[in-house]
Design brief:
The protein has 217 residues and is α+β, with helices and mostly antiparallel strands. It has a single domain (7-215), classed as Phosphoenolpyruvate Carboxykinase, domain 3, CATH 3.90.228.10. The protein is built from six helices and ten strands, in the order βαβααβαββαββαβββ. β8 (185-190) and β9 (196-201) form a beta hairpin. The longest helix is centred in the N-terminal third of the chain and has 19 residues, at 49-67. The radius of gyration is 17 Å and the shape is globular. The structure holds zinc ion. Residues 91-93, 95, 103-104, 106, 109, 112 line the site of zinc ion.
Amino acid sequence: MALMSVLVTELVEGDSSRRIVEIICRASCNRPDNHSGGVERILKVHNMQKTLAQFEEYRELVKIKASKLPKKHPRCLADGNELLRFHGSTVECSLGMKGSSSLCTSDKCRVCRILRYGFSTKKELSDGVGVFTASTSGRAFDSIQVLDGNPSLRKALIVCRVIAGRVHRPVENIQDIVGQSGFDSLAGKVGVHSSIEELYLLSPRALLPCFVVIYKT
Ligand SMILES: [Zn+2]
């Protein structure tokens, strides 16, 4: 597989984009003591033209699909139902440390793998369904599973633009729905004001990483 030359740059203190990401994360944080270690680094992802094109192609696909349904979903028709979501992940390498913005090639370093090759429903699957995303940074942070005891492993949140498309909700028996046509994503948990707290994207192409927030260990 050819390596993609995706770039990341650090957003330093005082950068306006950094302030926005901090506000997004904090505003959606549902516990005051969340992420006790605190934010170590915030990186901006500079996606390749090809990746952006694929994301837009996927959006068009979802819109076309929505236009053929007898019941009209205005958001799907307008922009494929684009949402801002959080995906919990881990960093194994020195990405973000001492200003390092080079991605490693380890398959175990989830953030670098996602940034290089994109999301994979096989690797990022939750219950065999799709790529898990949360509407709050707190919920995404809680979803991070640390299996091995690697002390250098850091938790990270990937802030993503996602094309949610037609959302199936609420999920009771997820396994029964997988493979059924018509839906682009599945709601795991629906919160107050019927906001979708947990959303599984059935296609890895539905996610575009924008920022990576790396937390202190
Ligand atoms: Zn890495």
